[in-house]
UniProtKB/TrEMBL annotation:
Domain Carbohydrate kinase FGGY C-terminal: 302-500
Catalytic activity: D-xylulose + ATP = D-xylulose 5-phosphate + ADP + H(+)
GO cellular component: cytosol
Enzyme Commission designation: 2.7.1.17
Domain of life assignment: Eukaryota
Pfam family, one: FGGY_N
A GO BP annotation: xylulose metabolic process
InterPro entries per record: ATPase_NBD (IPR043129), Carb_kinase_FGGY (IPR000577), D-XK_euk (IPR042024), FGGY_C (IPR018485), FGGY_N (IPR018484)
Name of this protein: Xylulose kinase
Domain Carbohydrate kinase FGGY N-terminal: 140-292
Length: 555
């Protein structure tokens, strides 16, 4: 939806989400209602980069990158599309947003001068790329090439639990500190030529500011470089991953959400008609931004984008929450002392899409018919699908099928893929993906937490009513969705609004005070039928199948 040459009066806030497959731009009003949405799909709209679902695999084993020039060109194109839709950007008071987590951008020594002197008659892409970057293809979260670096980091810091206690996570291949360690080892010249390193979430505000922005606290939690409780860089981790020069390359200590990084650069005012008083606030990771947009105490948020990600808000407490080697704890983007518990799966929407294409054709309608024509529990068959090396459980890859035993003391029996009826696969992947999450939720909830009472879905897959209904059945919760499935971009708009709202109050006020009394922007779309006993009874069976998959992959 977009307005012609009439843009609503009143302050507007632009939220951007630079995710794996696309760049989304959402304009929201002061009450966080959506005014207009636009997007750029990387594969379809920018085919010259040759990405598949926004990424390039290889050449090294496990290597997955995205061209930074593609991200720049997507921003240029998004602005063109918003202008063509008649959006008057002079009403935008603040810009913030989100980026896919863990991805890294390596700026060259010419970057700052190039950023600060862009000619409004030229595109950003033509002026910044490739000269502003010492590495042209940015490692992203789907990369799994840094297992060796992960083990080195854990050993140097005292083991996976010690690293999780310090940073909120054990070492993960996609986490930026391990990516930096690998780049420093394999491409020392490029590393030496790097003046600054950004996350995707600090890369975007840099181009709006015309200067390199600091990394934001919540997204910094996805690097294995920051103390998750103090929100400061940890010198020992920096030394291990990037040497004595890394602190300079990372810039200042991570910036909290709701702060003001500066005003928009002159290039944006002259080329696109932004108000010179428009402020730029720190962007955050797409998942923390989703929490900003949707989180209400007692809600579980499930993002069904390229990654499947479960998010739980953890309020401030006198005792820091436990950290685990099987999940993530992130600092909260807007509330000091609060955190976010996160489970993240690499085989999310693309795995579901692959099952759709392989067994029912490129048609979500047919996919849904298969789900609805098969029974809950799939007649005792379990299917686990990991086309990419998975994060949870770590390192497993391939498709695995089992028949659950009738006796709880017996193990599941492996089945051959050829024995599985084609029409069962759409249900099998949804049930196993959701059962994996269901089997882990209670472990990541802080002790004495109130029971979760709602599941809020977002991301591309949340548009699918069949998936919504199956989620309600598996989790035994009422399912809600926001006005737009682009919660990360909306969260970005809300972050910009928060920075603007605080400036209006001379820097005073909390995020909770700002959102208090706001209309909740979610609606109920599904509720569980029956007593949910089918899926409660399948959790242990799922766990046994997963254990067999881990053993088979370790063999
Ligand atoms: N009707 C649908 N049913 C299930 N999945 C869908 C549907 N529509 C889109 N998707 C999935 O949504 C994914 C894109 O989600 P999105 O949240 O935009 O991704 P990201 O933000 O990670 O780039 C696609 O990979 C696609 O498979
Ligand atoms: O790695 C993670 C979180 O740890 C992923 O959630 C990325 O942040 C990608 O996000 P999407 O493209 O799936 O939105």
């Amino acid at each position: 939806m977009s307005f012609g040459d009439v843009t609503p009066a009143g302050p507007l806030f632009l939220g951007l989400d630079l995710s794996t497959q696309s760049l989304k731009g959402i304009l929201i009003a002061e009450d966080s209602s959506v005014v207009t949405e636009h997007s750029v799909q990387f594969d379809k709209d920018l085919p010259r980069f040759g990405t598949t679902n926004g990424a390039i695999s290889g050449p090294a084993e496990g290597e997955v990158t995205s061209p930074v020039e593609m991200w720049l060109e997507a921003i240029d194109l998004l602005m063109e599309r918003m202008k063509a839709a008649g959006i008057d950007l002079s009403g935008v008071c603040a810009i913030s947003g989100s980026g896919q987590q863990h991805g890294s951008v390596f700026w060259s020594k010419d970057a700052e001068s190039l950023l600060s002197s862009m000619d409004p008659s030229q595109s950003m892409t033509s002026q910044l790329s490739p000269k502003a970057f010492s590495i042209q293809r940015s490692p992203i979260w789907q990369d799994s090439s840094t297992t060796k670096e992960c083990r080195e980091l854990e050993e140097a810091i005292g083991g996976p639990q010690a690293l999780a206690d310090l940073t909120g996570s054990r070492a993960y291949e996609r986490f930026t500190g391990n990516q930096i360690l690998r780049i420093r080892r394999l491409f020392p010249e490029a590393y030496a030529a790097t003046s600054r390193i950004s996350l995707v979430s600090s890369f975007i505000p840099s181009v709006f500011l015309g200067a390199i922005a600091p990394i934001e606290v919540s997204d910094a939690s996805g690097m294995n470089l920051m103390d998750v409780l103090t929100c400061k860089w940890d010198d020992k981790l920096l030394e291990i991953c990037g040497g004595p020069e890394l602190r300079v390359k990372l810039g200042p200590e991570p910036a909290p959400g709701g702060s003001i990084l500066g005003k928009i650069g002159g290039w944006w005012v002259k080329r696109w008609g932004f108000n010179p008083e428009c402020i730029i606030a720190p962007f955050t990771g797409d998942n923390p931004a989703t929490v900003v947009a949707l989180s209400t105490p007692g809600d579980a948020i499930l993002s069904l984008g390229t990654s499947t990600t479960l998010l739980l808000s953890i309020p401030p407490s006198d005792t820091p929450p436990a950290r685990f080697t099987t999940s993530h704890l992130l600092s909260h983007p807007t509330t000091p002392g609060a955190q976010i518990a996160m489970l993240c799966y690499k085989n999310g929407a693309l795995a579901r899409e692959q099952v759709r294409d392989q067994y029912v054709g490129k048609d979500w309608g047919k996919y849904n018919e298969c789900v609805e024509s098969t029974q809950p529990g799939s007649g005792g068959i379990m299917g686990l699908y990991f086309p990419l090396p998975e994060i949870i459980p770590p390192g497993v890859q391939g498709d695995f099928f089992f028949r659950l035993p009738t006796s709880p003391s017996s193990p599941p029996s492996p089945l051959s893929p050829s024995s599985i009826p084609k029409e069962l696969h759409p249900r099998l992947i949804l049930e196993s993906q959701f059962l994996s999450i269901k089997s882990r939720i209670s472990a990541i909830l802080p002790p004495h937490s109130p029971p979760l009472h709602r599941l809020v879905l977002t991301g591309g897959g949340s548009a699918n009513q069949t998936i919504r209904q199956l989620a309600a059945e598996v989790f035994g919760m009422n399912v809600y969705v926001p006005e737009s499935k682009e919660a990360a971009a909306i969260g970005g708009g809300v972050l910009g609004r928060f920075a603007w709202w605080r400036r209006e109050r001379q820097g005073e006020g909390t995020f909770e005070e700002m959102v208090a009394g706001m209309v909740e922007g979610v609606r109920k779309v599904a509720e569980p039928k029956g007593d949910g006993s089918v899926y409660e009874g399948l959790v242990e069976g799922y766990r046994k199948c997963e254990e067999m998959v881990v053993r088979a992959c370790d063999a």
